[in-house]
Design a protein that fits this description.
The chain is an alpha/beta fold. The protein is about 35% helix and about 20% strand. It has 14 helices and 17 strands. It has a 9-stranded mixed sheet, with helices on both faces. It has a 6-stranded parallel sheet with strand order 3-2-1-4-5-6, sandwiched between helices. The chain starts with a strand and ends in a 10-residue tail after the last helix.
Length: about 475
């Protein structure tokens, strides 16, 4: 396992803690080695101390064991290397020794503009042979044009079967349970269509701002950073047809069909069906928060969006007429990621309604911070008469399963090692997602409108509420 960007935030917070868990639980072959690469100068000992400090912070206290760490640390090696310099790569061959037949996983936890040069440099020294696999972090490019160019350059070195484009949301336990819920139970499939579902909400909200990612985020924005990958992938899993087999190509074929069935948002529709916002100064949990344009490494005149809400439509028989509302934002009132399936009301109300009870059913798949599934049902409230009230049937994963749940990166890293691409994005999926997103970004640029301001610590701009209210809907947290 070769980690480019081995001193970066992703490696320290996610990749190395995930590899520690895989080692602790016996999922790594005894001969597995981990080589971290970065420009910083470190001895092997100083790098291992750095990793130990971060692993100790990002695994639970009861899971960190000194004796386990000592064995894991023996797997770790470090090499100072500038990936932009081709002349540095022959040094890698002395460590990795091409031609041994051992599986080599190159994890590119770097900026996307380094993806193509890195794989080309690997090929130049014989390290991109049939035993090698490459993992690409999102975002892949900044548009369809740049993503296509990167994919073509990667494809000149690695065939598609050895390219793993990672989206960690697809490795989350609750996302896996969405597939199990749909395709492993007879209860929901007959209802999973426009005849019974009123609308769908997919939210990925963060209570923090851009933190130390201002330089990257000010170039990307919420649309490129979150919608083009995370939210569209979640939409695909909600809407896809059942694959013939649960194997990589069958699953990814069905996801691609959904991306290709998305109704384009172009012209005036961009103004009617999308909302872009940017957080202003505000407060969260008693702490004063600065406006986005005062964040570190952000242009003071920035028009970059930190919030996106939009209404998507899928033009196929199953979903025709069902709006899919997607939203994501920074500095929100609450950190949460969830999928809400709102069912249609009963055709005739027999019983008196109590308060604001909607008298219809709702399925909520919670992805973070707490993973679980809940189903709202109408039940008779205690006492005289037949007044109804909403009650919840909850599946809380922490309570239902006593075993520790895997982190998304644990599952995905092991899938790469085993060559299972089911939970990774295929090249044509990336292209289809960008083809849908690009016209929206172009429409924002052409209209010359600044993002709508919303106070940090709020639920976003008012226009996002109006987007749903036009069709008689409300965001779940606005009820």
């Amino acid at each position: 396992m070769v980690v480019f960007g081995g001193t970066g935030d992703l490696a320290m917070r996610k990749l190395l803690p995930a590899l520690y868990y895989l080692h602790r639980d016996g999922h790594l072959h005894p001969d597995t080695r981990i080589l971290a690469l970065a420009r910083a100068e470190h001895s092997i000992e100083s790098y291992r101390k750095l990793v130990k400090r971060h692993v100790g912070q990002h695994v639970s206290r009861r899971d960190f064991d000194q004796s386990v760490w000592e064995v894991f640390a023996e797997r770790l090696d470090y090499l100072s290397l500038d990936v932009s310099q081709r002349v540095a790569f022959p040094r890698l061959t002395k460590v990795l020794k091409p031609g041994t037949g051992r599986v080599r996983v190159f994890y590119l936890a770097t900026l996307p503009n380094l993806f193509a040069p890195t794989v080309q440099h690997l090929a130049s020294v014989g390290l991109a042979d049939e035993s090698a696999r490459v993992v690409l972090e999102k975002p892949l490019g900044e548009s369809l044009q740049t993503a296509t160019r990167i994919n073509e350059q990667i494809g000149q070195v690695f065939d598609e079967s050895r390219v793993f484009r990672i989206d960690h949301y697809l490795g989350k336990e609750a996302v896996q349970n969405l597939l199990a819920l749909r395709f492993g139970n007879a209860l929901f499939e007959p209802l999973w269509r426009n005849a019974h579902i009123d609308h769908v909400q997919i939210s990925v909200l963060e209570s923090v701002g851009v933190e130390n990612r201002g330089d990257y985020y000010d170039r990307a924005g919420a649309m490129r950073d979150m919608v083009q990958n995370h939210l569209l992938q979640l939409l695909c899993l909600v809407a896809m047809e059942a694959p013939v087999h649960f194997e990589p190509e069958a699953v990814r074929n069905e996801k691609l069909k959904i991306l290709e069935a998305l109704r384009p948002i172009t012209g005036m529709d961009v103004q009617d069906r999308t909302v872009r916002g940017q957080y202003a100064a505000g407060e969260h949990a008693g702490e004063r928060l600065p406006a986005y344009y005062f964040e570190k490494s952000v242009d003071h005149d920035s028009n970059t969006e930190t919030y996106v809400a939009l209404q998507a439509e899928i033009d196929n028989w199953r979903w025709a007429g069902v709006p899919f509302y997607l939203r994501t934002g920074k500095c929100m009132a609450q950190r949460k990621s969830e999928i809400v399936i709102q069912f249609k009301p009963v055709p005739h109300k027999l019983f008196p309604q109590r308060g604001d009870s909607p008298e219809n059913n709702r399925l909520i798949i919670s992805l973070q911070p707490d993973e679980g599934i809940s189903l709202s049902l109408m039940a008779k409230s205690p006492g005289r008469g037949m007044g109804l009230q909403e009650v919840e049937l909850d599946l809380n994963f922490d309570e239902a399963f006593t075993r520790r749940r895997w982190d998304a990166y644990e599952r995905l890293l092991l899938d790469v090692i085993e060559g299972d691409a089911t939970l990774f994005m295929r090249r044509d999926e990336i292209g289809a997602a960008w083809r849908w997103v690009d016209p929206i970004i172009d429409g924002w640029r052409d209209c010359y409108r600044s993002p709508k301001r919303y106070p940090a610590g709020s639920w976003g701009p008012d226009a996002a509420d109006s987007l749903l209210e036009r069709r008689g809907h409300r965001w779940l947290d606005q009820r």
